[in-house]
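Posted in: Structural Biology > Protein-Ligand Complexes

Title: Requesting predicted complex, L263DTV3 in pocket

I'd be grateful if someone could produce the 3D structure tokens for the following input. Sequence and ligand are given below.
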Amino acid sequence: MTDTPSHPDAGGAQPAGIAQPAAIALATAVARLARAERLLLALDFDGTLAPFVDIPKAARMLPAIKAALDRLEALPDTWVAYVSGRPLASLEIVTEADEDALLIGSHGVEIRFGRDGVSVDLSDEERATLDKLGETLGALVDSVPGTRLEVKPVGFGVHYRLLEGDEGAAVVARAYEAAASVSDQLTIRDGKDIIEFSVRGADKGDGIERLREYTHATAVLFAGDDVTDEDGFGVLRPEQGDLGIKVGQGETAAQFRVADERAVATLLTLLADAREAARGESAPTSSPA
Ligand SMILES: O=P(O)(O)OC[C@H]1O[C@H](O[C@H]2O[C@H](CO)[C@@H](O)[C@H](O)[C@H]2O)[C@H](O)[C@@H](O)[C@@H]1O
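-- Reply #1 --
Done. Output follows.
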């Protein structure tokens, strides 16, 4: 946390990891968001809540983030949802989802709202393309030590986090070529040390709109770190009180930017404090990681 004075509307605290006066403006926006009638927190997972690790299934959100989200989820008219590129099954594990969890997986293709869900029924043509894609990309990763194929319900991710320097770019080029030999209709997503090819083209913006509809939220907070999260920022309605937060570097349509997951922890803790106060709950003194 910074020790500089805060804006009168900001509830007396500022998010760490960003410079003034942006920190003051963000703290003010968070204080306003805390007073929303029905609040939806739609959150990207990897690189936003959880630091990157070499083994995807080992990723977990920072403890301070988990604590803040648990507090927020316990409040009335407040929903926490995860909107990720991960397959739903993987997202359930890393978020330690309970039976009420709101999850959007596979970049908007897979949906689980509590016990309700949308199953992904592939057409014969999509299934055939997917099978061929798996064989082709499988052969590629088998030929490049350090790469790994992530199997998803509607596509595949080629992971190359363990490669050095230009080796990653070379694998991406070969993956493009391999995928193009299968189909020119694929949705391609260039993520952080992963290149993904899918036979379905939904995006995180679609997922957020489904969540907005389901929760009847009057305000939405979406935070994300990657290029694929720009689809999410694109459907926000700042004029209605929505808030978009970009985590880390890179061009963005989000209104605000914070440095990293620790700054997200600070922000969510401030939001939990402010919303508990707004909803008349006790606001325990809490310190982020
Ligand atoms: O939309 P997100 O929740 O940010 O998911 C994006 C991808 O996240 C996972 O891969 C990334 O995180 C891994 C664990 O830290 C890391 O090893 C990998 O290099 C990153 O690309 C996940 O495995 C993918 O399926 C998601 O698309």
